[in-house]
Amino acid sequence: MEYEVIIGLEVHAELSTKTKIYCGCSTEFGGDPNTHCCPVCTGMPGALPVLNEKVVEYAVRAGLATGCEIARESKQDRKNYFYPDTPRAYQISQYDLPLCEHGHVDINVGEMSKTIGITRIHIEDDAGKLVHDGYTGGTLVDLNRAGVPLIEIVSEPDMRSAEEAVAYVEKLKGILEYIGVSDCKMQEGSLRADVNLSIRPVGQEKFGTRTETKNLNSFRSIARCIEFEIARQKEVLESGGVVLQETRRWDDEAGEGYAMRTKEEANDYRYFPEPDLMPIRLSEEYIQNIKDTLPELPESRRARYISEIGLPEYDAGIITSSKHLSDFFEAAVAVCGNAKSVSNWIMTDIIRIAKDKGVEYNELPFTAENLAKLIMLIDKGTISSAIAKKVFEEMVETGENPEKIVEAKGLVQISDEGAIKEVVDRIVAANPQSIADYKAGKDRALGFLVGQCMKEMKGKGNPQILNKLILEHLNK
Ligand code: ADP
Ligand code: MG
Ligand code: ZN
């Protein structure tokens, strides 16, 4: 039996406001446990929440950037459940009147582009963290994250593969970074996704029963979890079983998902309007102001890179997928003017280095300006591309200015014909066999001689001049 996979994602993004959603406590990541807390965010009886206006602004920005309709009137609701990291025993979220609805994000997978619907974006508060303490065998509660503002972005069940789901989260992450509402650091949990997945026999219209796997915080784990869950559901159906609607967890180390609890329904939460907070009413002017201050979005930058700069579509897509990377690109191009070359360095070495070091593109060990200077050294013929790779490795280690590295290490390319000729004459004289080979039609001999001369010149010989002088000998 052939199956079709149906995926819908709920993405939680922590908003990068300075203070929490209902109190003045800092949202800064880390800090000693329970030091960013007050009676409001620790759920003390009688403490009253006051909505942080920035949270509304950021959520509306996210809504506008994803083509949502913005509610002129919405409200917040209590979602009741007990969990030790939620001392109030309810989360303040939005139920039937979310701030944003009916948006979309366009994704590109290979040659295909596709629109993924966004059902809604609402605001809510984050929970605290449970720390399972191996030392005492007990569990400790850290409420520093409790009350950090979140937006939850719920997609339509429009994705059909792990690839599409990853492309969607990548695109969303890019948009949120561009509009500056979240730092989207997945390893710190600022951006995490719940995967809803079901399968149905090809041709069947009705969706199958879905499972929801919570809190995936890397692209890799999203993809692996999806593949795992597809295989699991197929096996269940093929062995004559039924897929249970359940909430699951993903164990990235084991590479396995497991059931956590059977799925709760909305009525299990006994949602009701939050009585301690006013409804949220937004004026046309307020929404227009936010619209007016939205920056250029990745889709527009991507189109510009293709049409104005002539980058290949693939490269333009990769570079604009991250605002940090795209900003890095623009900053380097502004200095050296050689967009193609900057793009090549990004597509090869820079993406690799960020991956190896596990850093974001705004945390690279060297600046865009220094990359631009390196490119200018190549363009001016001061160093060869081969030497440039060495200088670059040094920049990665030390962050040093490439001009200084070239000077300190004496790496300036030798373009003086007299100096090169002296080496060429010597190498050619020492390798008569190579000359004979070349004359006998073995072109490889040329490469060998160039290699020998380069070695002699420690890689600093100007390759064009070297080639020319050796050919003069060979064709004598
Ligand atoms: P809940 O709040 O119970 O998780 P929602 O209505 O908010 O439920 O939907 C959660 C997500 O599940 C949405 O992203 C939606 O697109 C997705 N979804 C709904 N039905 C299915 C299904 N049969 N298969 C896969 N995904 C689904
Ligand atoms: Mg859900
Ligand atoms: Zn607080």
In short:
By secondary structure, the protein is of the alpha+beta class. Helices cover 40% and strands 20% of the residues.
List the helices and strands and how they pair.
Elements: E1 3-14, H1 53-65, E2 69-70, E3 73-74, E4 77-80, E5 90-93, E6 100-109, E7 112-125, E8 129-132, E9 139-142, E10 149-155, H2 162-178, E11 191-201, E12 211-216, H3 219-238, E13 246-251, E14 256-262, E15 272-273, E16 280-281, H4 284-292, H5 298-309, H6 313-320, H7 323-336, H8 339-357, H9 368-379, H10 385-398, H11 402-408, H12 417-430, H13 432-439, H14 444-456, H15 463-474
Parallel strand pairs: 12-13
Antiparallel strand pairs: 1-10, 1-11, 2-6, 3-16, 4-5, 4-15, 6-7, 7-10, 8-9, 11-12, 13-14
Helix pairs in contact: 2-3, 5-6, 7-8, 7-9, 9-10, 12-14, 12-15, 13-14, 14-15
The structure holds adenosine-5'-diphosphate, magnesium ion and zinc ion.
Zinc ion binds at residues 20, 23, 25, 37-38, 40-41, 147.
Count of distinct strands: 16
Measured on Cα atoms, how large is the radius of gyration?
29 Å
What's the helical proportion of residues?
40-55%
Give the overall silhouette. elongated
Total domains:
3
What proportion of the residues form beta strands (DSSP E)? 15-25%
Structural class: alpha+beta
